[in-house]
Every structure is written in C-alpha cells, then in structure tokens.
C-alpha cells in the first residue's frame, strides 16, 4: 500500500522565487512537494520567511506577464515566479537584470551578498560620501497599507537633490502629488544627499506635514527588523 502511495505522489518541483519590485534580489530556490507543503498557504508562508519579504506574501506571479498562480498544482518545475503581498505586480526584468547586476556574488545556495556590501567599499552601512551607490527603503507618508519601496541611486544622483526628489515622486506615487521632502522615521527632515545613510529607512512626504506613525513596526516583519540585515543572510 505504501509503495502504491509513493508511486502516486506527484514529483517534486524546483522553482525560483523573486521579490516583487526588487530587481537586485537574486531569487530563492524552493523544492515543492506534498511532504513539505500540504497547502498553498503553507508555501506562501515559507516564501515570506525565506525571501524576507517586507509584508506577508499573498500572491505568486509569473515574472514576465504577471499572471497569478492560484494553487500549488499550477507551479511548473524549473520555472521562476515573483512573490508579492496585496500590492500589484511590478513588471521588471527579474530573470536577467538582477542576475546581471549581481555578477560575482555567491550563488543562491550559499550566503547571499548584499548590494550594499558590493557597492559600498567602506562596508555595509555608512554615510553616502563613502559609497558608490545608495540603497534605502522608503515609506509613503501616512500610508500604513503599502510596504516600503526600494530606492537605489548612484552617488551622483543622490547628491542632486532635485533629481532625487523627482525619482521619489515617480516611485512613491503619493496621493498628494509630488514628493517635496524626505524625512527620517523620527520626523526630522533630510536637507541634502550628504545626510543620507545607506541602508536606512525614510518617509517620502508631499506638501502635507509629516505624519508620525509606526511605519517600521507595522510594515516590516519582526524577523526583518534588524535594519536591512536580511541582505547578509
């Protein structure tokens, strides 16, 4: 009976999952079988934990066209997918751009090197003037439903304040319109690029006043709460 049951069990599927909206995440491999995941919900929970998603993963999409995967049986062996929360699918070149940018890092089976550690020769964190590129996560002022979006800039762009605000305006898509200022989580305003700290969290604010809310506490999972340490797994 047991041998018959084993024969009827569907074969394991090997898939790679990327993080929605993050072109530099190299992807995480998963082996999907009945013994490990009895339900699709169990798979989503494991993906949330393994890719260190800013919010619980609730949707799995195909990487090119954003088609939603509804159940475990829809996953195809050897294919790639994009994990997202309740936010909409963000169309990026997950399959090529991220891997191109991360050339020289360890493979996905070993500890993954952070973009910060790659670009910032002075170390994983530090002031902008010591780094070649700047990476941070930015919340939207007064919005406790949307996770922070990644902000990746070259040093030259970061130091051009008008260009940085224009980039923030495009990425944040605030209901109030253009981003007029960038604040730290305590509400103090950042006045120029030299004050930016690589790997920190900020809040994009329009013409309205900064709204002091528990952005970090509510929108970043506890296991990710070590200020971007999920990069150096």
From TrEMBL:
Q: Which UniProt keywords apply?
A: Repeat
Task: Identify the PROSITE patterns for this entry.
Answer: DC
Q: Which domain of life is it from?
A: Eukaryota
| Gene Ontology CC entries for this record | microtubule; microtubule organizing center
Which segments cross the bilayer? none
Domain named Doublecortin: which ranges? 13-95, 138-216
Query: Which GO terms fall under biological process for this protein?
Result: intracellular signal transduction
Q: Which PANTHER family match?
A: DOUBLECORTIN DOMAIN CONTAINING 2, DOUBLECORTIN DOMAIN-CONTAINING PROTEIN 2B
Protein name, per record: DCD2B protein
